[in-house]
Amino acid sequence: QVQLVESGGGSVQAEGSLRLSCEVSASIASVYSMAWFRHTPGKEREGVACLRSSGSTVYADSVKGRFTISKDNAKNTLYLQMNSLKPEDTATYYCAAGWGCSLSTSSMNYWGKGTLVTISS
Predict the structure, then answer these.
(1) What are phi and psi for residue 87, nearest 5 degrees?
(2) Coil, strand or helix: which one is 61?
(3) Contact 35, 96 (CB under 8 A)
């Protein structure tokens, strides 16, 4: 059984910071690529950041320099540190795992249920 459980969502003002967490099943935490996606009604789900098992990272241009993806292997937990938040960052954020790291939903095999992040101006 593979499970991904997000937490840390909430409301924060623009320019603020927030850290999302994703508790990952130990069976995949050290093998799969891990990623964060986000979705806003009316828009396609988009890849935000991805972390390969090797440690290399990939970021969407829209968050580069502001967001940081990381993983604590001892806790089997994936993180997304979000700084300098903007209203357009408002979305439901999903933790995902897969073999690819292209920021495409097609490369992901497992998904969490999401956590809502709301940024006000």
Answers:
(1) -55, -35
(2) coil
(3) yes
* Interval 71-94: pLDDT, tens: 998 899 999 999 999 999 999 999
Tell me how far CA of residue 108 lies from CA of 11, 48, 90, in angstroms.
27, 13, 22
Residues in the chain: 121
CA 27 vs CA 3, 80, 112: distances in Å: 10, 21, 15
CA dist 45 and 66 (Å) reads: 19
Question: pLDDT digits over 20-74, tens only?
Answer: 999 999 888 788 999 999 999 999 999 999 999 999 999 999 999 999 999 998 8
Distance CA 55, CA 68 (A): 12
DSSP-derived letter for residue 102 is: S
